[in-house]
Amino acid sequence: MNKPLDSAVLDAISADPGRVPYARPQPWGIVSDLVEHELLTEDERLWAPIGALSWSRPIHLNVTGGYYVHLLRVRRSGVLQRHRHSGAVHAYVIRGRWHYLEHDWLAETGSYVFEPPGETHTLVVPDDCSEMITLFTVHGALMYVDPLGNATGYDDVFTRIERYRAHFEAAGLGADHVRRFMR
Ligand code: FE
Hints:
There is one protein chain. The protein is mainly β. It has a single domain (44-181), classed as Jelly Rolls (Sandwich), CATH 2.60.120. It contains two helices and twelve strands. A hairpin with a 4-residue loop joins strand 2 (54-62) and strand 3. Bound molecules: fe (iii) ion (FE). Fe (iii) ion (FE) binds at residues 83, 85, 89, 115, 121.
């Protein structure tokens, strides 16, 4: 199945196998890699408003895996929203702090948080925090709920994409700017 490698490649491998790139083709059907720089960019065109004094900066929108990676930036304190997760969430706090009404821990700069599928929680930014920025990897959907768990709305990678498209269009980047983050 693999084609024979040419002799220059074989010579380089035998000379120093630790320092040569992988010599075979990548698998058929693989999607392209994604590298995003300056995650904390001050280019406001990349930060889509998602509510009062809250923004989302897309990093990776995976429509085949049904998950998305984004930076949530919040510049107000208080209760933000209550939601239930259908999939796992990983969070890394880059700046500021926040907590959930349902837990006694505080996530702060440098913290990692795993949110298990099925969990419902209510996000709060404390009064002494003027800005929080957290990198979230969100699988599946967030279902917004009232205190009894009744659904009031939802977000997933597709609703996020629609939000980013509208924002990028309004910001002058064009709706299709969202494609650079999609896999
Ligand atoms: Fe959550």
